[in-house]
Amino acid sequence: MKEKIVRIAFALLIMAIVLFQFTILSRATETLSSELIAWGLKRSDNHNPPKLDSASLEILNEYHGIAIGNSEEKKLYLTFDLGYEAGYTAQILDVLKENDVKAVFFITGHYLNTQPDLVKRMIEEGHTIGNHTVNHKSLPSLSDSEIEKEIMDLHKALYDKFDYEMTYFRPPKGEFSEKVLNITTNLGYTTVLWSFAYDDWDENKQGREDYGKKKILENLHNRKYSFTSCH
Ligand SMILES: [Zn+2]
């Protein structure tokens, strides 16, 4: 009899611990901040790494996101954000192929729908395709289910079309929140920001070879390096 009471008491204790942990976890998810974080950095001179906002970087690191990394590695990561096709991608792919360089292309739903042949070419030539959402909306103001839909509708569309499963995510406009990172991480995505970008989205500045070349070469830094081109 005494043994039975001890066993019941023990079972109740386990249940209480499980319930307690469950309450903590669900409360933690509810209280994740939706406050908008706009990714920003301050360029440094003399090829030193840029200064990243420490609060943003801390949250990004917590969710194993990528922006800048090991200063021991002389590696340069090329990433292109493709909201729409401005007529340069085929040429970019030619140059990458000639130089045996692989890049990451973050695409939107519009890009996939209008340029399936270019996306197919990226995959066939060994590049990585990343998720830049269906509609390129700023995610922090959306509901959980809207955020998930923005990511997963594109994920499924690319998978259905080319049997390709994306694992890297770049938030539209570089805007995210702790809640956004939590959702993207739960969906199996690694969030990728950047450590250098310039205004090549400005159509008035496109096509000026020296302008872009100068900006890029001036800002190379011996860190994991992500160059973004956002249209
Ligand atoms: Zn973009």
Description:
By secondary structure, the protein is of the alpha/beta class. It has two domains: 1-31; 37-228, Glycoside hydrolase/deacetylase (TIM Barrel, Alpha-Beta Barrel), CATH 3.20.20. The protein is 44% helix and 13% strand. It has eight helices and eleven strands. It has helices at 2-30, 54-62, 89-98, 109-114, 116-124, 144-162, 178-186, 209-218; strands spanning 37-38, 41-42, 51-52, 77-82, 104-107, 128-131, 168-169, 175-176, 190-191, 196-197, 226-228. The strands form four sheets. Strands 6-5-4-11-10 form a five-stranded parallel beta sheet. A two-stranded antiparallel sheet has the order 1-8. Helix 6 (144-162) packs parallel to helix 7. It starts with a helix and ends with a strand. Bound molecules: zinc ion.
- What does the radius of gyration come to? 22 Å
CATH architecture of the largest domain: Alpha-Beta Barrel
CATH class bucket of the largest domain: Alpha Beta
Helix content: 40-55%
| Total E-strand runs | 11
Regions with pLDDT < 50 over 5+ consecutive residues?
none
Write the layout of secondary structure elements.
Blueprint: H1 2-30, E1 37-38, E2 41-42, E3 51-52, H2 54-62, E4 77-82, H3 89-98, E5 104-107, H4 109-114, H5 116-124, E6 128-131, H6 144-162, E7 168-169, E8 175-176, H7 178-186, E9 190-191, E10 196-197, H8 209-218, E11 226-228
Helix pairs in contact: 6-7
The structure holds zinc ion.
